[in-house]
């Protein structure tokens, strides 16, 4: 296949004769695009999803697939005390007040509606119980039983297809055709290098962020310029490129989800639940270096500042049992990531550190003790010890096109473009403008909640 053209605009030219028409084109068939399509089909709206890969996957398939939501039917059935207002407070608190308030409100209201609707379509969800993710004051993580992002995407794809949405894969959208300031259609590249077109009334950008664009990462996220990238290669900044050409406003470009538990050399994600329930991160000098309970996103930066840009997740038998309930960890263990030491001296040898420094560090992990970083522990870690070598990684960006509470893309003067909406990775999220603002699950909150909102906007406009 020849090199595909860069994202571009085609202004005030008629689409090729015979170009097919569909009311709504959705660019990207991850969680955001598929959620959008399902709601559109429920309203009787025809749509087509254009997906660059052979099968829908995107950033969602590489995630754990956990969607935070308050007030769902499932959560209420379990007697979990929570509310959308409390959830919104947690999102805002994690960003120290920097999250876009209109999107926090819109997404925390929309995401339980989306999950309840998806359940009604037959998707089975569970609420993860037994532990709280950083920054959440209630059990609100919803997951399909397989507990993987790939399984979530597969369930959404089946649901969208059953609802009548058309999904065209290996269709890399590279052109927006403009008639004045309205988008009249799109052009997409096929595997043979040919360009095909679709005319439309509305466009939903549910495509990507820019984590896979090394030049943009170096410019906007310099602290992650040399970090491992655990996201999708399709996150190439296409939506931002179009936004600049359209005169759209951009927002929160310094926001992203990092992860301080990227297993090396296996290149896999290790669940942060082990850390939240008492595990610790120790560097090559045998020392802890931060309060791990603040969150796995900012932990990425902390880990990258350690000698060799690595750390070890250290935990014990009860926490190993917890870890093995997560498929990602099971696969990493099968690949040889787990190391075991029968005592502190063996653990020091494994970590390559001074045994005295390690003993002092582990002595600080004690029931009822609050350490110098402000973390309190429920219990000490007991031998045998387990360890997994990790580094800090970049997963996906949280900034992009500026949007209003209806997910309409805004021009630099704050007015909305007439028939373009965006959500998920293409748009600004609710993580403020810094790595530390990422609350666990914010990516799928923006994707699923944003996809639900975007669909509602399109439905209202087409019915007007």
UniProtKB/TrEMBL annotation:
Protein name according to UniProt: FAD-dependent oxidoreductase
Keywords: FAD, Flavoprotein, Oxidoreductase
Cofactor: FAD
One matching Pfam family: FAD_binding_2
Gene Ontology annotations of biological process type: steroid metabolic process
GO MF terms, alphabetically ordered: oxidoreductase activity
Domain FAD-dependent oxidoreductase 2 FAD-binding: 24-433
Keyword Flavoprotein: yes
UniProt-listed Gene3D superfamilies: FAD/NAD(P)-binding domain, Succinate dehydrogenase/fumarate reductase flavoprotein, catalytic domain
Any coiled-coil regions, as ranges: none
